[in-house]
Structure formats: structure tokens, C-alpha cells
Design a protein that fits this description.
By secondary structure, the chain is α+β, with helices and mostly antiparallel strands. The protein has one domain: Shew3726-like (Double Stranded RNA Binding Domain). Helices cover 34% and strands 29% of the residues. It has a 4-stranded mixed β-sheet with strand order 1-2-3-4.
Length: 83
């Protein structure tokens, strides 16, 4: 089974300056953290507040998920950083 993203949940992490989201490969949960700098590539005027960062993530979710799928490799790793 391929990586899928049935859960639309995402969470801003102020200390890591990014947004966490989760994918699934069968029953395995795979965690992803997309760095604020990646979001700034989509939105040059991105602010640093939680609401703005999450809104940017939501606007560009499809592109971010494509990046996550390209980075993902089946195996024991369950955490990926999109930087």
C-alpha cells in the first residue's frame, strides 16, 4: 500500500518553526514536519503567527503532500522533515 493522507489534521509547532502533519502506510503512522521556510517559498509575505502559517499550509496542502510523497521511502523511518 502507498502512503496516504486521510487525516487532514495539522499542528503548528512554534519551537520548531513548522507544521506537523501525518500520513499512513498501512497501519503505520508517518510524521512530517514542514519548515516555515518551505511555506515562505509559496507565500513570500508569510507572517510568523500560527494562524497565518496554518492558513498557508492549508492553501498549499496539495503541493506539500506531493513533496512528502516524493521524500517518503518505505522502511523503518517514521519521521520526515521537509526543509
Amino acid at each position: 500500500m502507498a502512503l496516504s493522507f486521510p487525516n487532514p489534521s495539522r499542528s503548528y509547532d512554534e519551537s520548531r518553526h513548522g507544521v506537523w502533519f501525518w500520513g499512513y502506510d498501512n497501519a503505520r503512522e508517518i510524521s512530517f514536519l514542514v519548515d516555515d521556510r518551505v511555506l515562505m517559498n509559496f507565500d513570500a509575505a508569510l507572517g510568523s503567527d500560527e494562524a497565518g502559517v496554518l492558513a498557508s499550509f492549508d492553501r498549499h496542502r496539495n503541493e506539500i503532500l506531493k513533496m512528502a510523497m516524493a521524500l517518503y521511502a518505505e522502511g523503518p523511518q517514521t519521521l520526515y522533515l521537509l526543509q
